[in-house]
């Protein structure tokens, strides 16, 4: 999360360094958006997974071997490894409430209150006033990508929201180095133990930061004397490698941003790159230490908000 001047600076810096022509800064897109199915097919948006979210859950729950259509082998193999009679569902979502820590000043305090009761109205209901990027939440490509083909929340393919879960553990290092980052060396180490990172995977960083999120906003942001935040994330080389060498669906972190603390507010090049490639991220994930390194199927239950830049997520791991 950061101001528009920082975003434009990071985008220009990254695009120039990567050999792309920097785009002209612009405001919010107001023209009618084209039908996603009619858009030009590009490298980063033409690999839509053929496995639907409902089919994946159905296969996990009922053990159906044939899903009625072509599926990526990694998805099929992960589902095949899940025993329906012993299905375990792990919730990787923080409980959202009015005192939940936020990344100030970019996010407003949540305001959740009861506006109807059975005694007064015959039913109970709450009103939710929250930013899209509050609690365990989704970063859609449009969050940092103003190009005409940038996907809004409701345009992300459901097949990309049900995918093999890869968990990269760096909690021991993060306990010593608050600015630790997942690098290519960590990804290759994971592959030596578990095999190739599957195409279309959700690659998650387990830095042990959930405990800090639950402790307090101060512990989560871990600011220094100058007000700069310090928490782990992915380095840009790892993100480039994951897209160019493995073609993942997205990344997830247990911290406020997948750009590590110091860069998250000053040079969010990870957001500019990853979301610029029409991939997504899930941030503020809970209790990744309870999820296996491999073998789980992630279900990214993001609120289907039309025109959104993100939204609340109920993230589940099926094993």
UniProtKB/TrEMBL annotation:
Hydrolase among the record's keywords? yes
Transmembrane annotation, as ranges: none
Region of interest: Disordered: 16-39
Q: What class of enzyme is it?
A: hydrolase
Keywords assigned: Hydrolase
This protein's name: Cyclase family protein
Q: Which Pfam families match?
A: Cyclase
UniProt-listed PROSITE patterns: TAT
- Could you tell me the EC number(s) of this protein? 3.5.-.-
């Amino acid at each position: 999360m950061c101001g528009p001047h920082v975003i434009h600076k990071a985008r220009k810096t990254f695009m120039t360094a990567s050999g792309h022509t920097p785009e002209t800064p612009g405001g919010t897109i107001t023209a009618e958006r084209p039908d996603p199915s009619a858009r030009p097919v590009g490298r980063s948006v033409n690999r839509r997974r053929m496995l639907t979210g409902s089919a994946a859950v159905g296969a996990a729950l009922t053990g159906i071997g044939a899903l009625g259509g072509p599926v990526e082998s990694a998805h099929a193999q992960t589902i095949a490894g899940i025993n329906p009679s012993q299905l375990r569902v792990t919730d990787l979502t923080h409980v959202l409430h009015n005192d939940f820590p936020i990344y100030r000043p970019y996010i407003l305090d949540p305001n959740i209150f009861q506006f109807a009761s059975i005694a007064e109205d015959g039913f109970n209901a709450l009103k939710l006033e929250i930013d899209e990027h509050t609690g365990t939440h989704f970063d859609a490509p449009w969050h940092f990508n103003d190009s005409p083909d940038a996907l809004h929340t409701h345009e992300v393919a459901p097949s990309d929201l049900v995918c093999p879960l890869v968990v990269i553990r760096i909690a021991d290092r993060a306990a010593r180095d608050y600015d630790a980052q997942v690098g290519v060396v960590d990804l290759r180490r994971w592959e030596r133990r578990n095999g190739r990172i599957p195409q279309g995977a959700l690659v998650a960083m387990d830095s042990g930061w959930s405990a800090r999120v639950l402790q307090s906003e101060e512990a989560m942001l871990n600011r220094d004397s100058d007000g700069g935040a310090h928490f782990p994330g992915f380095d840009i080389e790892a993100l480039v490698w994951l897209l160019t060498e493995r073609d993942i669906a997205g990344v997830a972190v247990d911290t406020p941003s997948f750009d590590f603390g110091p860069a998250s507010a000053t040079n969010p090049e990870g957001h500019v790159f990853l979301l610029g490639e029409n991939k997504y991220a899930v941030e503020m994930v809970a209790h990744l230490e309870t999820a296996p390194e491999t073998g789980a199927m992630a279900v990214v239950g993001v609120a289907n908000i039309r025109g959104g830049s993100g939204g609340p997520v109920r993230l589940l791991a099926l094993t």
